């Protein structure tokens, strides 16, 4: 079998120097007996890694389903808020409150029996607030590869004992305007 080197390697048979009346109809094309390169095996992309630290892990149960039979998005969001709240309180050395959620994206459904893992990553710290990126990954039925299903940004504000915003700790020091931070045990 010969190949036309002008028409992207179209295969044809050669009879006395003239191309067959297959796909290539031009007898003046140069003929090539070179074998076209074999397609390389597609290398699967490396699995995406979760961003941040594991903050919580729980099992999706039947009581948490929506009418379609998937896990209710509000339940997923509550798991994310709780996981982010744990991380935020540890960083603030005290009480925090969720003040905003942005960029919420539900990428895939979560099913009953999936192990739901919430990962948190510190995005920024301001005078009285901090923002965390939160991702939810699941293990379907607790097995196999993890799959990213949801992500969002959660903003928290540090609060004093009266529920008013107070300064976030910097460099491990307790701010004077946030005495509740001094009451928290140190977290390693």
Structure description:
The chain has 188 residues and is mainly beta. The protein folds into two domains: 31 residues, no CATH class; 131 residues, Thiol Ester Dehydrase, Chain A (Roll). It has a five-stranded antiparallel beta sheet with strand order 6-8-9-10-7. A three-stranded antiparallel beta sheet has the order 2-1-5, with no helix packed on it. It has a two-stranded antiparallel ribbon with strand order 3-4. The longest helix is centred in the middle third of the chain and has 20 residues. The N terminus is likely disordered.
**CATH-wise, what's the superfamily of the largest domain?**
Hotdog Thioesterase
Mean pLDDT: 80
* Structural domain count: 2
Oligomer: single chain
Low-confidence stretches: 1-16, 18-23
Based on CA atoms alone, the radius of gyration comes out at 29 Å
- CATH topology title of the largest domain: Thiol Ester Dehydrase, Chain A
CATH class bucket of the largest domain: Alpha Beta
Biggest sheet architecture: 5 strands, antiparallel
- The succession of helices and strands, N to C, reads EEEEEEHEEEEH
Give the helix tally: 2
Shape summary: elongated
Please give the share of residues in helix. Answer: 10-25%
Strand percent estimate: 25-35%
